[in-house]
Amino acid sequence: MTDSNSAQAAGSAPVLEVKDLVVTFGAGSSAVTVLKGVNASISRGQTLGIVGESGSGKSTLAKAIVGLVHASSGSILVDGIDVGRMTGPQRRDMRRKVQMIPQDPYSSLNPRRTIGQTLAEAIDPVRSSPMLHREKIEYWLSTIRLDADVASRYPHEFSGGQRQRIAVARALAVEPRLIIADEITSALDLSVQAELLNLVGRLRRELDLTMAFISHDLDVVHHVSDSIMVLYNGDVVEAGSVDAVYQNPQDPYTRKLIDSVPGGPGFDIG
Amino acid sequence: MAKTPRTPGRRFRWTPGLLIGVVMMSVMVAIAVVAPLFLTSSAETLTANPSQGPSAEHWLGTDDFGRDVLARSLVATRLTLLMTVSTTIMAVVGGIAIGTAVWLAPAKVRNGALRLIEAAVAYPSLIFALLIAAILGQGTWSAVLAIAIASIPAFSRLTANMAASISQRNYVSTARLLGVPGPRIITRHLLPNMAEPLLILTATVFATTLIELSSLSFIGLGVQNPEYDFGRLLNEALVNIYSQPLQAVMPSIMITVTGLSAMLIGDGLAAASDPRGGRRHRTRRQASELPASLRSSADALVEVDNLTITAPTGKELVKGLSLSIRAGEVVGLVGESGSGKSLTAMSIAGLLPEELTVSARTLRVGDLDLLGRNDPRRMATEIGLVYQDPGTTFNPALRMGSQLTEVSRVHLKESRTTAVAKMVKALADIRITRPESRMKQYPHQLSGGMLQRAMIATSLVSDPKLIIADEPTTALDVTVQADVLRQFRSINRERGTAMLFISHDIGVVQALCDTVIVMNGGKVLERLTGADLAKGNVKHPYTKALLAATPSMSERKTELVALRSDAFNLDEEIEEVSP
User: Fold this and answer.
1) What stretches of B447-503 adopt beta strand conformation (E)?
2) CB-based contact, B115 to chain A, within 8 Å
3) For the segment B170-187, what is each residue's pLDDT rounded down to a tens digit?
4) Which end of chain A has less Cβ packing within 10 Å, N or C?
5) What is the pLDDT of residue A44?
6) Across the interface, do A264 and B553 touch by the CB < 8 Å criterion?
7) Which residues of chain A neighbour B6 with C-beta distances below 8 Å?
8) Which of A189, A263, A265 is nearest residue B337 as measured by Cβ atoms?
9) Can you list the pairs that A196-200 forms with residues at least 24 positions away whose Cβ atoms lie under 8 Å?
10) Which residues make Cβ contacts (< 8 Å) with residue B168, sequence separation at least 6?
């Protein structure tokens, strides 16, 4: 993976670099090590797909990158700066550089705040009156193809797919360096998923987004990613460019994973 | 799901309870404002007519000192309400402040503080208040302070616990990522989302405060002569309870009315504060159209002809659907949410919710007519069911054994030993390791794939003719899903069990099913063989669009076709299944 990525980076420092990341929950005999020395890097404008089954540690990795989970050892560098060594206001600035789009469209929006209020908070967390930021709110709503009058409505008036698009707009409105998309299509219907994936594809081209795309769905990851990383029990078992890994997986677990996808070439249930 | 059109913005919702509460409370407030202006002299002037019964002049009689009982009760409203309101405000503000402070504190301080608060909640607040009142001395404001302090723990406990639970939600962690300062997270994201329980607790505290203040005054620790509130009036009335019983009636009524109106207002406000509320469900049952004749089809095991399922609102969820399943055939129902696939399957299992109206020309499984009443034992043994989420279909408090053998013991009337032996064999058949010890385990000790296989095993013990599986692999990991699908395949091959397999995943149905039925908007759009679907040999434009909207690792599509089901002619049905 390091080879292909350094080739893409062509001299510029990667937006995200994860080095030997270990995350352990609990202490003593009940301690569970969820990530066992993970390495990853994403260059500007690239999308890294992170796949794995439940318990593989992919969501923990996402939380560690955004700072919601503490690293036990190892380091996370955003734009070459170690996130773990920052304090106070420095970290608050850094936090806005990395944004996460959560999985569940139903708990990611505060039900008591209008869409306008939610977006205004992303634009300016302190002075967050929707009136102050009306132009920007309308701009971000138009990027996700929603009308401007949506701003005065509440989350319950939207479908799951629309809410997920709003969550995308909220992450974009911060204008972050890196976006972490954590299973953003897993709660959606096929047609809604297609719409969201098209939106993500369009934004990647137009806004030159740098993204970590976490999913259990190998078809979806294949569709959106440049490179891919396969996690199993907290270890990276395989990493590389999408075409290389899908066409010629080296690790037996990756092989099994790819062959288990219904409709895929290796799928066989007897 | 169709979105119900709603006007944007919020309109305050008046529930009958809230209305009654507000009216009652307004009357009490009006009395509190007006009564002291006009009735003070008759309430407080000593006259020469003590201890009189009811008369035209004194409706409820007079007390020991010849003061009008009714007037005293009405005038006392002002002081009582003032005391209750200030106590409640102190309790709410103090409680929320302490609660959020505890939540913001470092973990060690927080845990210590929470235990302390819990101990305070467990201690009877009236006794706590008595203690404080005894320290502060007798008097109106020491009573207020005592009760307020005694009520604070309940509030802080609720606030801290609610804050802990709400802070787990994604919008709170997202707000942190956005860099929203802590105090603003509390005012914007935490407090509004705990408004309901806090409002209800405020109303309850108002009512209990009223009673506790009255109790303090009643036992002489609260309001002192010459001032008087409801409790003080009750205290005076106690002396004359046999000669002047009416003296106690009016303060009691006032206490009850005030408390009740506070509770009604609290509940009403809680309901009105939620922007999601206000949806009303109407239930209306129609007589279902019974079949005029049973159209017999010798080889079909399941026959559904012109099935219509109607919601209580009159909306048709399934519109005249027909399908048949032959013995040993695997039929897949594929469609997006709201397509009616699960409703169709559940109506074949006889498990539709009561409020839905079902009508069909024919709806049968074998010789079970599902439009009439059926023996529950035959339903349970002839149709096997496998649900979507193995994590929630088992009761976490019971061992696997008693849950897995339920069908055999209840419906097949088998002894415990036979049922267990049979189940152990069934689990072994489906390749679950160490079946005997699994039976003694609890659901949380088994993995999701194992639970789902156990559920398939239970659906097989009665040797059903048909298995209905509603998204049985959706909650499973992809490698486990492949395993479970292999199980379904071998059951079908070895036992010849027919299956109705519901899924949203085209890849799954094309691999497993002989026949695939594509549904949308409560209708069948296309029937085709699984093999044809796998080859992309489809006719209906909706099915084509569905395939084009599916990302695939076998090919790189630059743009997925964004599919809009309203753009297709859903009345067109294409049938391409060779028997």
Assistant:
1) 466-470, 498-503
2) no
3) 888 888 888 888 888 888
4) C
5) 93
6) yes
7) 157
8) A189
9) A196/A161, A196/A164, A196/A165, A196/A168, A197/A223, A197/A224, A197/B551, A197/B560, A198/B559, A198/B560, A198/B562, A199/A144, A199/A145, A199/A165, A199/A168, A200/A168, A200/A224
10) none
Q: Of A79-88, A105-114, B501-510, give the lowest mean pLDDT range.
A: A79-88
Domains, chain B, ordered by start: 16-40+68-272 (1.10.3720.10), 300-575 (3.40.50.300)
According to DSSP, the β-strands at A81-82 and A73-78 are antiparallel
* Structure-token pair, residue B276: 């999601």
3-state SS, residue A100: strand
Q: Which CATH superfamily is domain A2-110+179-190+210-259 in?
A: P-loop containing nucleotide triphosphate hydrolases (3.40.50.300)
What are the backbone angles phi and psi of residue B555, rounded to the nearest 5°?
-140, 155
pLDDT in tens, A186-225: 888 888 888 899 999 888 888 889 999 999 999 999 999 9
What are the residue boundaries of the structural domains of chain A, listed by start? 2-110+179-190+210-259
Q: What is the DSSP string of B243-276?
A: T-THHHHHHHHHHHHHHHHHHHHHHHHHHHT-TT
CA gap B257, B272 in Å, rounded: 22
- Verify whether the Cβ–Cβ distance B507 to A264 is below 8 Å: yes
Q: In chain A, positions 120-179, which contact chain B (CB-CB < 8 Å)?
A: 121-122, 125-126, 128, 149, 152-154, 156-157, 159, 170, 174
Q: Strands, E, within B153-290: which ranges?
A: none
**Max intra-chain CA distance, chain B:** 107
Give the 3-state secondary structure percentages of chain B, helix then strand then coil, rounded to 5.
55, 10, 35
Evaluate if residue B56 carries a pLDDT over 90: no
B514 vs A contacts (CB less than 8 Å):
none
User: Residue B144 and residue B83: Cα distance in Å, rounded?
Assistant: 6
Nearest C-alpha neighbor of B540 from the set B576, B577, B574: B574
Query: CA of A190 to nearest chain B CA: how many angstroms apart?
Result: 7
